[in-house]
Amino acid sequence: MDAEFINSYRNPQLSGNWFLDLNPLSKMNIIIILAFIPVFYPSWQVSIGATLFYILLAVTSGRFKNFISPFLKLGLVIGPFFFILRAIFWPGDTTIFNFGIINITQEGVDLGIRYGTIMLVVTAVLVLLSVTIKAQSLTYALEKIGVPHTASFIILSSLQTIIDLKNKANVIMDSQKSRGIETEGNVFTRVRAFIPVLTPLFLGAISEAEEKSIAMDARAFGSDNSHSHLKFLRSVPVWEKLLVVIINLAVISLIIWRFVG
């Protein structure tokens, strides 16, 4: 066997991008803790600034194409949804529009903008985590800091199950379409076509879960001995540790300043 191929599994798997090559726990720390700034500084300007920063991180990491599509799909639904809920039903003194139970006030609009932009930040955080952190790398990093391999497997299996369900649903929908069943059109047509898919989808998921547990038992997954890995993470350099510490201290200082000031 080619020695270079063998050695490729002995060395850390690096992409050449400084952000993607960060330890998964470091990336998670940086992405999540920055989201506390718009939470403790609740203004739409801060939330928009944080959202733009996450978009910049996606560009810097080379994951912009993977990031922007799910971000727009989720953000353009969740953000306006929270805005409408707050704007329509939040009481206030300055009424802009009133009709029946709908009472739009200036205070409700202001609060709706604030909540809507915060949800944009939350959406950006979730999408950026999913496109920049591999589940396998995250679970391996958790095991290295002492998390039991059973817990890391549950995390990895849960994430993989979501992906498998999505792929299987697409396969079933394509097979339904090949039989001449209408699966595209308005919302009611899509719902009517998707309901029959649920039964084989979840039965297949239960069956696959049982097969996976049998396969893991056959591979001595429950053994207390140390487990082997095909891929390895690089050791965390000093500059990366300093970067995480500086960002954490900066965010904590801003939060303390918010309450003191």
TrEMBL record:
Name the major location. membrane
Keyword Transmembrane included in the entry's annotation: yes
This protein's UniProt keywords: Cell membrane, Membrane, Transmembrane, Transmembrane helix
The entry's cellular-component GO terms read: plasma membrane
Give compartment(s): Membrane
List all membrane-crossing ranges.
30-59, 71-92, 112-133, 242-260
The UniProt entry, under CDD domains, shows: EcfT (cd16914)
Q: What InterPro entries is this protein classified in? A: ABC/ECF_trnsptr_transmembrane, ECF_transporter_component
Per the UniProt record, one Pfam family is CbiQ
Bilayer topology reads: Multi-pass membrane protein
Q: Which domain of life is it from?
A: Bacteria
- The protein depicted here goes by the name Cobalt ABC transporter permease
